Amino acid sequence: MTDQEVGGRELLVHQLKLEKSRAGSSILENEACSKPHQSIEALEKSLVKAWNAIPQEVIDRAVDDFPKRLKKCIDAQGGHFENK
Q1: How far apart are CA 84 and CA 64, in angstroms?
Q2: What own/partner pairs with CB < 8 Å and gap ≥ 24 does 67-72 have?
Q3: How many angstroms separate the CA atoms of 51 and 26, rounded?
Q4: Which domain of life is it from (predicted)?
Q5: Long-range contacts of the stretch 55-62 (C-beta < 8 A, 24+)
Q6: How do the domains of the chain map onto residue ranges?
Q7: Over the chain (84 residues), what is each successive 10-residue block's mean pLDDT?
Q8: Would you say the pTM of this structure is higher than 0.85?
């Protein structure tokens, strides 16, 4: 994986964390962290499985919404902002 792909994936993970589920937890937390893991490897495997299960529509929405979120973050000078 290239540095650009890693950076893009990290950005997307951050975006997906911002996409809240009905329970108020992020998608990855709901899927991968619903039970304790015995090792870092087990957690990583669970996260990859959860990542691969995210519907493409959710990823597309996060990518499409990113410029709007970035502008709000810049306008808030990096502080807290509401995304409505």
Answers
A1: 14
A2: 69/15, 69/18
A3: 12
A4: Eukaryota
A5: 58/16, 58/19, 58/27, 59/12, 59/16, 61/19, 62/12, 62/15, 62/16, 62/18, 62/19
A6: 3-75
A7: 64 62 59 82 86 85 85 85 70
A8: no
User: Token digits for 9?
Assistant: 């994936």
Query: How long, in residues, is the chain?
Result: 84
Tokens, residue 24:
């108020």
52: which 2 tokens? 């691969």
The tokens 């015995």 sit on which residue?
Answer: 38
What span, in angstroms and rounded, lies between the C-alpha atoms of 78 and 71?
Answer: 10
